[in-house]
Amino acid sequence: MAIEQCEILILGGGPVGLSTAAELAWRGRKPVMIDDTNGVVDHPRAGGIGIRTMEHFRRWGISDEIRNCGFNLDLPLNQRFCTGVVGLELGVARYPSMRETTPLPTTPEMIARCRQMWLDPILAKTARALGADLRHRKRLERFEQDEEGVTCDILDLDSGERSQIRAQYMIACDGVNSGVRKTLGIEMQGEVLGNTVSVLFRSNIRELAPEPSERFIVINQEGVYGNITAMDGYDLYRFIMRGPNEFTMEGFDAEQAIRKAINAPDADVEVISVRPWRRSQLLADTYRVGRVFLAGDAVHVMVPTGGFGANTGIGDAVDLGWKLDAVLSGWGGSHLLDSYFTERHPAAARSINAALVNFKGWTPTSGLSLLYDESEAGAKARVKIGRELVDATAKEWDSSGVSLGYAYGGSPIVVDDGSTPPPDDPGFYVQTARPGHRAPHVWLDEGQSTIDLFGRGFLLLRFDGDDPAEAKALLDAATARGVPLALKDIRNEAARKAYERRLCLVRPDGHVAWRGDALPEPGSLLDTITGA
Ligand SMILES: Cc1cc2nc3c(=O)[nH]c(=O)nc-3n(C[C@H](O)[C@H](O)[C@H](O)COP(=O)(O)OP(=O)(O)OC[C@H]3O[C@@H](n4cnc5c(N)ncnc54)[C@H](O)[C@@H]3O)c2cc1C
Hints:
Elements: E1 4-11, H1 15-26, E2 32-34, E3 48-49, H2 51-60, H3 63-67, E4 79-82, E5 89-93, E6 112-113, H4 116-130, E7 133-135, E8 138-145, E9 150-156, E10 162-172, H5 179-184, E11 188-203, H6 205-208, E12 215-220, E13 223-230, E14 236-241, H7 254-262, E15 269-284, E16 288-289, E17 292-294, E18 300-301, H8 309-329, H9 339-361, H10 376-397, H11 400-404, E19 443-445, E20 448-449, E21 458-462, H12 472-481, E22 485-489, H13 493-499, E23 503-506, E24 512-516, H14 522-529
Parallel strand pairs: 1-2, 1-10, 2-7, 4-12, 10-17, 21-22
Antiparallel strand pairs: 3-6, 4-5, 8-9, 9-10, 11-14, 11-15, 12-13, 13-14, 15-18, 16-17, 19-20, 21-23, 23-24
The structure holds flavin-adenine dinucleotide (FAD).
């Protein structure tokens, strides 16, 4: 049997595998992706797209398409705490609709609602258009690696035929039950918090609810009963049972559970699909064994409160993408690929922690005995519970710090400048050009952000000075090593202030590698930032 050869085999066609394919293809590589599904998402999980992910999508040219995916742009994104969709109001965190949302001053993009039934096909179409080879209904049965590559045995699920692919590298984005992770013997640290269930359904909730909302978080006297989330903003919803951790499917009546949460006898409820799932927070000990890398849920799993799972995995894809491209192009150093774990493992730990804080915030601490009480004391208790829940969950809805504020300060391929990092607040992003952080956004011209300059290679920004000789030694040294590096002079006072130094060297993923007022010796700088 002839063995097909490829540079990179991506395993798994979820949001992370597809993003890895898009990122690598955007860089001119021709990855092959295999996935055992037919590519159609019939029960969406991810769907809250974070700002940083939207910035990556902007680079691939799809942020507008993601925003206009089909979600009702006029639905206010209110988060309503109540005893039922039709029930007593406890508190409401009010947010504008997608159409009325405007970007924060620190980014050209904003959050989006693009549920997976739209997200995955858009990512697949994008990856294909960029040159990735995506193959569905193919299953990886086994693999083995040696010093030169990874040999994968593939089963075609339709024809039953078996084939082999030999790749220089494999990236396993095969989800929470990753077979690759298990085969490699990689341990996960953390805990399983409980079993639960997700139900997709159609309903006329929009006609019944006292005010339009994206989410109804239903509280009863035992605590949080569950939540109903608008999936398309019209009539498609998802119910997630919060309930006891020891939930089992035995005797579970999805329609009845949803009716209890809606609390209106005349509600239309059409159950589409029911999926049990496990709420856990787990983080792998390593993201790489030899020529096999892992990304996404295969190495980090978090509770979905906040919607950080796929966003964190897409961050992995972007970090690994430019590094693998650099190594395959010949300019990436021998330590560059190791920095993938050094940089992304703490980023995942940070998301996991933020998600857990959000999860705990959903739990009312007192007053539940008066929840349905019609007296003045009951009304006061409800207001108090509502206020407590709205305050405790504020960082779940305003999570710009989680999305934009992760940084690679301790990375071996970043040159620390000794400056103090800004506070790491999940709910508030402070922009900084400190090495390791995301390079700041400043509008340069209408529609053009500083972050639109980044991506293809390293970029040296110069805010003050125009002497062509100044960067010549660095540019020449980079050319001699084949490192893609360009110089960009920026005459913009706001940008100069945001970057705080005369010179700033930005990596292909838009993070700062080095900054200063005078360039250091080029050889050692290039050695460090390329992982030589
Ligand atoms: C209720 C809920 C809501 C969520 N909401 C959000 C949100 O709003 N935002 C967010 O960012 N995240 C959210 N998440 C998390 C998000 O869904 C996951 O983090 C994300 O789907 C992980 O993507 P992935 O590509 O790593 O893995 P997966 O999506 O699990 O994809 C893995 C793919 O690999 C395939 N595969 C596995 N083994 C093989 C094999 N041997 N051969 C071939 N193919 C294989 C699988 O079939 C699958 O298609 C939510 C999760 C839940 C449960």
